[in-house]
Amino acid sequence: GMVNQGNLNWVALQDYSFDPTDAPALTQQYLSLWAGEIHLKNPQANLLFYAPAERRDRPDSQPQIDSVFRASASTLHATVVYTGDAWAAASLQRPDLALYVPNDPVHPTLAGSYLTACMFYSAMYQQSPQGLVVPTGLSDEDGAFLQDIAWRTSSLESPDPAWNPAKTTGA
């Protein structure tokens, strides 16, 4: 695949939505194996670990999800994209804006996907996604809100718990 071509600048890794909570050691094992393979073929590649928002059928699992990816990132020189923090902040401030597909515990709506994309943009470029094109299907107001949430969540070094309640759990 593309990893073997040796010219990648960015590689994002994720795991099944249930593995960080059900099999955290397995998640860490495979992050390590893939990171080793990626760096062998692409020594210049920047690694991103996608820490997804918790599944709706596993409430209060975000701290464990974040911890699994944080522990691996510290030893594998990767950046964690903490999407769960942004999803928690967005849900708290705009409960009317659905981030999950109805009756589905894990899959995102367009708004959830866009918020996640904005988090990746912030992580990769260390810049605000504010002003990026909002996809068809989202209002400009909703897009601007999600861009703001992504930037404020990803750029907080010592977050105010009132702004980002996900951080109060030790995540």
Number of helices: 6
Strand order of the largest sheet: 1-2-3
Largest sheet composition: 3 strands, parallel
- Bulk shape: globular
The rounded Rg comes to 16 Å
Number of strands: 3
For the terminal residues, how far apart are their CA atoms? Answer: 34 Å
What structural category arises from helix and sheet content? mainly alpha
Helix content: 40-55%
Question: What value does the average pLDDT take?
Answer: 89
* Beta-strand proportion: 5-15%
Low-confidence stretches: 157-171
Order of helices and strands: EHHEHEHHH
Keyword list:
3 strands, 6 helices, globular, single chain, about 170 residues
Characterization of the model:
- The chain is mostly helical and 171 residues long.
- It has helices at residues 19-22, 24-41, 62-76, 83-93, 110-125, 140-154, and strands at residues 10-13, 46-51, 78-82.
- α2 packs parallel to α3.
- The model is unreliable at 157-171 (pLDDT under 50).
Brief sketch in words of this structure:
This protein has helices at residues 19-22, 24-41, 62-76, 83-93, 110-125, 140-154; strands spanning 10-13, 46-51, 78-82.
Write the layout of secondary structure elements.
Elements: E1 10-13, H1 19-22, H2 24-41, E2 46-51, H3 62-76, E3 78-82, H4 83-93, H5 110-125, H6 140-154
Parallel strand pairs: 1-2, 2-3
